[in-house]
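Need a sequence for this fold. Nothing fancy.
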């Protein structure tokens, strides 16, 4: 085998300054990806470049003692002594996050962090942050030939073993510092642009999911009005192909056709704005998009959707605050065992309930008259009503479910799996068990009257969550026995 061409070794760097650590990661990443892009340009010009390889930066922490003082946060410390490592990609995108997380580790343990080159190759398509380029410009034959000279993505090494708890944390050797390796992060960043039509850098820390375009239309209207009035604390509104800044006209070109799950971003300079994604219908979409957004480490995500009300006392337009989930959708059974409880998170529940009260102006028994808290059942069969009702009704009754949809359980279960605070607020749009079906005329009137208020509640809930200290929001309910160190 021909010798592999690299940049050569990098001297290990150690520091107790989180900013310096992040700066070194940035420098190493820029050096490695720049080298890879330069070699690919030479290859494209016909030069014989040999076998080329670049490597992801690695961050290591050696802990010899427990935290120096009491730790109340859910992350940022190790319960046991040992060596912890993680590979890092796109430090430009994660700069604030990395610096905050490294500072927590240094403060809690008093140890220096070490930055070095890992032994994990950077795949060629992942070396260009803005897109899949240079692979975008290559047909399958050219991409196959490039494999002789460059590393391409290898899915055998990209998985969710850490997040799923499939790693033996007591085994000899380094333990994982983060939930995701660099290749896993890069894979999702590229998938996000494919599915959502916007760059990952625009995603905000507070994410709303919906399965109705009406919500997106109203969200866009709110954002455009804010831009026209000077931003009102937001610095941009980003939609597929377009960026609008306060007081300006939209820049860019709308796509010829919408991406599968278009994302819209009401951007704050600190990343504390709101992203809204139309995930479409079904639990598979819900799992797919949260698999990828999770690598961005958002502060919270919420589902705003419609549901079938299962109780005779519910009315069309009533709200359901999901407090538990009957997971009959099966999309995450291999990752989160069906017997796993998906707990309600008090901070999220309170934020949602307060938002409903604030937007509707109701409280006490009046508020309870339009909102019920209880179990949401999620299924993978949109036409569940057409089955023999005896067995479904028995299960729904025994679970005490008050509403049924297709996406909420997947959103919540993946939030649980990836340690992202989650919640669900649904609006009753039909009651098929009681003869109130979603017929076209009734549905249109329902959407006109209910969507904007429901969206206002979701956005208000995000404001409530943004006001919380991270220590309050990131519940230790989401952490297992021996966790990776970073949030």
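Here you go.
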């Amino acid at each position: 085998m021909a010798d592999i061409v690299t940049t050569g070794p990098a001297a290990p760097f150690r520091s107790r300054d989180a900013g310096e650590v992040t700066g070194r990661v940035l420098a190493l990443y820029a050096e490695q990806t720049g080298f890879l892009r330069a070699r690919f340009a030479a290859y494209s010009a016909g030069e014989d470049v040999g076998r080329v390889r670049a490597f992801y930066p690695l961050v290591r922490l050696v802990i010899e003692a427990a935290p120096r003082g009491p730790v109340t946060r859910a992350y940022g410390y190790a319960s046991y002594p040992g060596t912890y490592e993680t590979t890092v990609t796109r430090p430009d995108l994660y700069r604030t996050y990395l610096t905050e997380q490294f500072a927590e580790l240094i403060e809690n343990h008093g140890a220096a962090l070490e930055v070095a080159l890992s032994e994990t190759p950077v795949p060629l398509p992942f070396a260009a942050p803005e897109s899949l380029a240079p692979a975008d410009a290559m047909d399958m034959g050219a991409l196959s030939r490039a494999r002789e000279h460059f590393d391409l993505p290898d899915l055998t090494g990209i998985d969710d073993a850490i997040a799923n708890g499939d790693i033996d944390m007591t085994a000899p050797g380094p333990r994982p510092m983060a939930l995701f390796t660099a290749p896993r992060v890069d894979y999702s960043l590229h998938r996000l642009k494919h599915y959502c039509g916007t760059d990952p850098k625009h995603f905000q820390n507070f994410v709303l999911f919906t399965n109705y375009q009406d919500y997106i239309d109203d969200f866009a209207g709110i954002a455009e009005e804010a831009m026209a009035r000077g931003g009102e604390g937001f610095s941009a509104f980003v939609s597929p192909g377009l960026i609008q800044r306060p007081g300006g006209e939209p820049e860019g070109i709308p796509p010829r056709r919408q991406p599968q799950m278009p994302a819209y971003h009401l951007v704050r300079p600190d990343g504390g704005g709101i992203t809204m994604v139309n995930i479409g219908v079904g639990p598979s979409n819900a799992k797919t998009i949260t698999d990828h957004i999770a690598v961005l480490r958002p502060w919270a995500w919420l589902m705003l959707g419609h549901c079938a009300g299962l109780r005779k006392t519910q009315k069309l337009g009533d709200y359901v605050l999901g407090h538990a989930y009957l997971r009959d959708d099966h999309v995450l059974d291999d990752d989160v065992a069906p017997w796993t409880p998906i707990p309600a998170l008090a901070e999220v529940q309170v934020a949602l309930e307060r938002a409903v009260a604030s937007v509707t102006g109701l409280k006490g028994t009046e508020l309870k008259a339009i909102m019920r808290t209880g179990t949401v059942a999620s299924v993978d069969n949109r036409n569940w009503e057409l089955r023999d009702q005896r067995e479904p009704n028995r299960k729904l009754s025994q679970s005490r479910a008050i509403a049924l949809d297709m996406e909420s359980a997947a959103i919540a279960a993946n939030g649980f799996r990836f340690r992202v605070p989650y919640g669900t607020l649904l609006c009753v749009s039909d009651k098929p068990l009681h003869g109130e079906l979603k017929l076209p005329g009734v549905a249109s009137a329902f959407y006109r009257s209910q969507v904007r208020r429901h969206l206002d509640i979701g956005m208000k809930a995000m404001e409530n969550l943004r006001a919380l200290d991270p220590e309050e929001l990131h519940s230790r309910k989401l952490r297992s026995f021996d966790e990776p160190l970073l949030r």
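For context: The chain has two domains: 4-192, 197-478.
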